[in-house]
């Protein structure tokens, strides 16, 4: 579900998990849009936010997606009661 190995600098990705840019920095929410600054193996360096509010975050490829995913409340309720 994460970004493919072809993710490169300049690509736009979306967060699949909440990420913090620094120990006391802002928390970036799931679904936030980010720009890939650097891709090195399984690690990505991302710019999250815009203009003076942009911050840099490092994470694994598995924590981002190339397309924005949304879940309806109905799908979330169905997963909640799943026995699988």
What is the strand and helix layout of this fold?
Elements: E1 12-15, E2 19-20, E3 27-28, E4 33-40, E5 43-48, E6 55-60, E7 64-65, H1 73-80
Antiparallel strand pairs: 1-4, 1-7, 2-3, 4-5, 5-6
What's the gyration radius in Å?
Answer: 14 Å
Span between termini: 19 Å
User: Which regions have little confidence, pLDDT < 50, spanning 5+ residues?
Assistant: none
Derived from helix and strand composition plus strand pairing, the structural class reads: mainly beta
Q: Return the average pLDDT rounded to an integer.
A: 79
Fourth-level CATH superfamily: SH3 Domains
Give the CATH class.
Answer: Mainly Beta
Architecture overview:
It is built from 1 helix and 7 strands; from the N terminus they run E-E-E-E-E-E-E-H. The chain has a single domain (12-80), classed as Roll (SH3 type barrels), CATH 2.30.30.40. The longest helix has 8 residues, at 73-80. By secondary structure, it is mainly beta. Strands 6-5-4-1-7 form a 5-stranded antiparallel sheet, with no helix packed on it. It has a two-stranded antiparallel sheet with strand order 2-3. The two termini are 19 Å apart. The protein is globular, with a radius of gyration of 14 Å. The mean pLDDT is 79. It has one helix spanning 73-80, and strands spanning 12-15, 19-20, 27-28, 33-40, 43-48, 55-60, 64-65.
Relevant terms:
SH3 type barrels, globular, mainly beta, two-stranded antiparallel sheet, 1 helix, 84 residues
